[in-house]
Write a structure and sequence with these properties.
A hairpin with a 5-residue loop joins strand 10 and strand 11. The chain is built from twelve helices and 13 strands. Helix 11 runs antiparallel to helix 12. The protein is an alpha+beta fold. It has a six-stranded mixed beta sheet, with helices on both faces. A four-stranded antiparallel beta sheet has the order 10-11-9-12. It has a three-stranded antiparallel beta sheet with strand order 2-7-8, sandwiched between helices. It has two domains: 193 residues, Ribosomal Protein S5, domain 2 (2-Layer Sandwich); 172 residues, Alpha-Beta Plaits, CATH 3.30.70. Bound molecules: adenosine-5'-diphosphate and magnesium ion. The site of adenosine-5'-diphosphate has 17 residues, from strand 6 and helix 4.
């Protein structure tokens, strides 16, 4: 059903605005957003749509096409308590962050696979934020909306995410990746001409989620911060590989490894941008492999399922592959030739079955547009 009709079926009136925002995949630049690094995500073609209408009272009602059995009831007053659990927090958090003072009816329909590492959460937040920005004529820029939706996820949903997902969902451009500088939030659009070169990006959701037995994210972040403090730099962004190697003795071996990933990954992002601009896709693929090895061996955030995707893709003709996202499960990407798509997915499926792992999910997408108002 069209979202306008679905809205009308749920609320008995027509929506005043419909907006959409995409999920994303990060080409390269992993675990460096919090080190003031550079990241290079693109928006995928799957989007979340939000249909919204103002109400005359202060009530908030929310329906999701993905949760058809429930209608969430809240109010502008209740928002201040920030409590609550469940999926509607992502929507309520945005209403809270944008300081909306009027009641609303909202219907959301998300076609970004949930929990596959493609950021359905940012797609949801950004589609609601884009709709509200238009409806209330707030005049917020996409950078401001990125900061506000990140704030919603950090402080209302209470998930400590960086600003990458929201930025790319809001600012992406069809045919381009978004080079985002996490130090000053400046952006550049970088052409990604995979399709015309007969290439595509395969996304493989391993469906594995390993518990972070060793402190996971917090330890990586803390190690980078303590390494920076010991070496007298503001962040990993200010550190050169030469200085890191020279001052090796000032760091613990874990700090050294974590710092080596961060410093080398930031350099790889800059190289990757050059390779994409020059359409040197073989060399670009090699950078994906180097990123994976660094995440696996220095940052130690990979896992057997992710390594299996990467190794199997490479053994079957991929130009390069790496894990994406936080690690310990989630998704991996592989840059592959169009004609190898069937062979590589089959090989990965078989390798997973042989290892006794749950069957993986496959997606692919070319770089697509960011959030917009569609009616
Ligand atoms: P990811 O962002 O990688 O998909 P997250 O765990 O960050 O994974 O976000 C997924 C969560 O976002 C879901 O569990 C759900 O709570 C919420 N969500 C996202 N899209 C929708 C939707 N269309 N309808 C309801 N909830 C959604
Ligand atoms: Mg998310």
């Amino acid at each position: 059903m069209e979202i306008a009709q679905a809205f009308e079926t749920s609320f008995g009136t027509k929506p005043e605005v419909i907006a959409q925002a995409p999920g994303r995949v990060n080409l390269i630049g992993e675990h460096i957003d919090y080190s003031q690094g550079l990241v290079l995500p693109f928006a995928i073609d799957a989007v979340t749509k939000s249909a919204i209408r103002k109400r005359d009272d202060d009530q908030i009602r929310i329906v999701s096409a993905q949760r058809p059995e429930e209608m969430i009831h809240s109010s502008i007053l209740e928002l201040q308590q920030k409590g609550g659990t469940g999926w509607s927090r992502y929507v309520l958090g945005v209403i809270w962050a944008l300081e909306i003072k009027k009641g609303l009816d909202l219907y959301v329909d998300g076609r970004v696979p949930l929990g596959a590492g493609l950021s359905s959460s940012a797609a949801l937040e950004c589609s609601v934020a884009t709709g509200l920005n238009h409806l209330f004529q707030l005049g917020k820029s996409s950078t401001e909306l990125a900061q506000l939706t990140q704030r919603a996820e950090n402080q209302y949903v209470v998930v400590p995410c960086g600003i990458m997902d929201q930025s790319v969902s809001l600012m992406a451009k069809n045919g381009y990746a978004l080079l985002l500088d996490c130090r000053d939030l400046s952006t550049q659009h970088v052409p990604v001409d995979f399709a015309e070169a007969g290439l595509r990006l395969l996304i493989v959701d391993t469906r594995a989620h390993h518990a972070l037995i060793d402190g996971g994210y917090a330890e990586r972040r803390a190690s980078c911060e303590s390494a920076a403090a010991k070496l007298g730099v503001a962040s990993m962004r200010e550190l050169e590989m030469q200085q890191l190697e020279r001052d090796h003795d000032k760091l613990t071996s874990v700090e050294f490894q974590r710092a080596r990933h961060a410093v080398s990954e930031i350099a790889r992002v800059l190289k990757a941008v050059e390779r994409l601009r020059a359409k040197q896709f073989l060399e670009f693929g090699e950078l994906l492999n180097q990123s994976h090895i660094s995440l696996r061996d220095d940052y130690t955030v990979s896992c057997p399922e992710l390594d299996l995707v990467v190794d199997t893709a490479n053994a079957n003709g991929a130009l390069g592959a790496r894990m994406v996202g936080g690690g310990f499960g989630g998704s991996a990407i592989a840059l592959i030739k169009d004609e190898d798509a069937g062979k590589i997915s089959l090989a990965i499926e078989k390798a997973f079955a042989d290892a006794g792992y749950q069957a993986p999910r496959f997606f692919d997408s070319l770089p697509s547009d960011g959030a917009k108002v569609i009616s």
